[in-house]
Amino acid sequence: MYMYYGITMVFFTVFWVCHIYIYINNMTLFIFYHVSYQNVTPFLCIIIALHSVEYHVLPCDICIINCILLLQVTVRDALNQAMDEELERDERVFLLGEEVAQYDGAYKVSRGLWKKYGDKRIIDTPITEMGFAGIAVGAAMAGLRPICEFMTFNFSMQAIDQVINSAAKTYYMSAGRQSVPIVFRGPNGASAGVAAQHSQCFAAWYGHCPGLKVVSPWSAEDARGLLKSAIRDDNPVVFLENELMYGVPFEMSEESQSKDFLIPIGKAKIERQGNHITVVSHSRMVSLCLDAAAVLAKEGIECEVINMRTIRPLDAEAIETSVMKTNHLITVEGGWPQFGVGGEILARIMEGPAFNYLDAPAVRVTGVDIPMPYAKILEDNSVPQIKDIIFSVKKTLNA
Amino acid sequence: IYRMMQTIRRMELKADQLYKQKIIRGFCHLYDGQEACAVGIETGINLSDHLITAYRAHGYTLTRGGTVREIMAELTGRRGGIAKGKGGSMHMYTKHFYGGNGIVGAQVPLGAGVALACKYLGNNEICVCLYGDGAANQGQIFETYNMASLWKLPCIFICENNKYGMGTSVERASTSTHYFKKGDFIPGLRMDGMDVLCVREATKFAAEHCRSGKGPILMELQTYRYHGHSMSDPGISYRTREEIQEVRSKSDPISMLKDRMLSNNMASVEELKEIDVEVRKEIEEAAQFATTDPEPPLEDLCN
């Protein structure tokens, strides 16, 4: 994947040198593509073709641009496509939440869906989380497959009784008689400048509860495959997105474009192989871990970066296998330190076979134990930064 | 109808006995006195319709298709219980019956959700969504009234007003005790919840209203429970024995029906007595099963 991208970049660079004028105009189209959030690639081909005369673009430029454009999908679009495809595939799937229909989604994740599917399947709700979450759970009990959007997971606290007591516990309490095939989704964790009441991470809270599956995607591919799996899962799934990741483009493989592309819930992914230390993370923090790993690689430290993908059930085996290879472990998360995701991972490592392989105590890198402040300098220092990860890695390795 | 009410009455009294013998443990909220509500409602709807209620649910579990055996075995926590011993008194489920819900008021949005599914699937079914006078002030209920009314969900909201929310009388809990009016734009009816035929006719009316696409409707059933809030509540610290006695003698739902049937020559004394005997037998057998059936196997713990 990276190699393919590299080759196209080489070609692109060569032609870029020769066609600077054309490059500038094409980049405008490139940016336009991302900003518009629509899957207009075929349309774009025509635009480029029409403009090619004007901008003296060579046919190969068009191919390269199209190739690059085709493979780049933002997390937002991936989520949108996943929902679109699942809505199409199963009549019982529907979406409800605040502003999901006519507003196209508070963060535009459900853009275009109301236009396509109408009032019956894309439902705007009043600002009554406890009520509409309960209604969604009831609909799931009666045989539908709702996607219940919380504008952010901070507001899910209003409805948390319905998520835990009505959704999560019911399958067990009814001895398997009553299932609740619902997905609760929405942005989780810190955003930018939204302050304390809008920045909490709920991975640990929901990860604590039996009866729920809790998923935390990082890349566009994660978002697509995991959301599809979540919708098709007969259990209640809490799907923790990240607002800062919505606009980030990722390469998507050919295979991941298939309508039946599913990523299994409960399996982590090794995003980067390494031998010196295991770095476990989820959601946006994976980006920072990979950036930190790139910096550390220059100093000869090879990090193995694991993207958890799922919080519950936790893929302890993947982490253990890695730790048994690298002998060192740190966890990185945006949430608060006490009773958190990192705490659980460390406890599992202690209790499992990997403990004997540790050459140093495992360490957690987390958000600071305070309500999120507003001022940028304070906010920036309330969540892990690349330098914090680098510091932790080095400290663990030198211990 | 008579048999069903008598069965509920006998079953609840048996449960009282078993609880005092410590064979049933935990929470046990008994329904005796309110039989006319459960039975009247069930006869006003179809089995294919849906129903959800709170924790005083044994009567509804029966009317919705559960057997006395399964219910009692669930109360005693045995593997033959309707939820295999995993749910207990408050978490019993049958087809189109969604419990049995422990959190006060939480079942109301759930019920509206079921109604949404009925409308979505276009199956002409409705959902009966019950709650008590204690729950009636819950915020989520008002949230639900709004959405049910906005989206015209085929939902019958029913408030079983037995005059006490645990130990708090309605006068001490609500500024307005006109529970049937709390639905704002949702039309509301209030009726005698001790008269099973009245409940039946009202339910039929309400069901027709919902099925015709007019949206939700609200019913307040004025009823009474003989037992305390639960088995740990003697029920006499916040009300007088005289009050309970008066209801028993003047407005007992089973007696009222019996008198009506006899005075209209719909049944003879012997026929009713025969039913009573059969019911007692059924309850005895069920209790026998419930006390002898083994507990769930440990393997079931994580299954």
UniProtKB/TrEMBL annotation, chain A:
Top-level class of the enzyme under EC nomenclature: oxidoreductase
Cofactor annotation: thiamine diphosphate
Molecular function (Gene Ontology), one example: metal ion binding
Membrane-spanning parts: 6-24
Keyword Membrane: yes
Domain (Transketolase-like pyrimidine-binding): residue spans on this chain: 73-248
Record's GO cellular component terms: mitochondrion; pyruvate dehydrogenase complex
Function recorded in the entry: The pyruvate dehydrogenase complex catalyzes the overall conversion of pyruvate to acetyl-CoA and CO(2), and thereby links the glycolytic pathway to the tricarboxylic cycle.
PANTHER family reported for this sequence: DEHYDROGENASE RELATED (PTHR11624), PYRUVATE DEHYDROGENASE E1 COMPONENT SUBUNIT BETA, MITOCHONDRIAL (PTHR11624:SF96)
Protein name according to UniProt: Pyruvate dehydrogenase E1 component subunit beta
Organism of this sequence: Cyprinus carpio
Lineage: Eukaryota, Metazoa, Chordata, Craniata, Vertebrata
TrEMBL record, chain B:
EC class of the enzyme, as a word: oxidoreductase
Coiled-coil stretches noted in the UniProt entry, renumbered to this chain: none
Reaction it catalyzes: N(6)-[(R)-lipoyl]-L-lysyl-[protein] + pyruvate + H(+) = N(6)-[(R)-S(8)-acetyldihydrolipoyl]-L-lysyl-[protein] + CO2
EC number: 1.2.4.1
Pfam families assigned to the protein according to its UniProt record, in alphabetical order: E1_dh (PF00676)
Keyword Transit peptide: yes
Cofactor(s) of this protein: thiamine diphosphate
Keyword list, A-Z: Carbohydrate metabolism, Glucose metabolism, Oxidoreductase, Pyruvate, Thiamine pyrophosphate, Transit peptide
Keyword Oxidoreductase among UniProt keywords: yes
Ranges of residues in domain Dehydrogenase E1 component: 3-298
Molecular function GO terms recorded: pyruvate dehydrogenase (acetyl-transferring) activity
Gene Ontology terms describing biological process: glucose metabolic process; pyruvate decarboxylation to acetyl-CoA
Functional description taken from the UniProt entry: The pyruvate dehydrogenase complex catalyzes the overall conversion of pyruvate to acetyl-CoA and CO(2), and thereby links the glycolytic pathway to the tricarboxylic cycle.
Subunit text: Heterotetramer of two PDHA2 and two PDHB subunits. The heterotetramer interacts with DLAT, and is part of the multimeric pyruvate dehydrogenase complex that contains multiple copies of pyruvate dehydrogenase (E1), dihydrolipoamide acetyltransferase (DLAT, E2) and lipoamide dehydrogenase (DLD, E3). These subunits are bound to an inner core composed of about 48 DLAT and 12 PDHX molecules.
Protein name (record): Pyruvate dehydrogenase E1 component subunit alpha
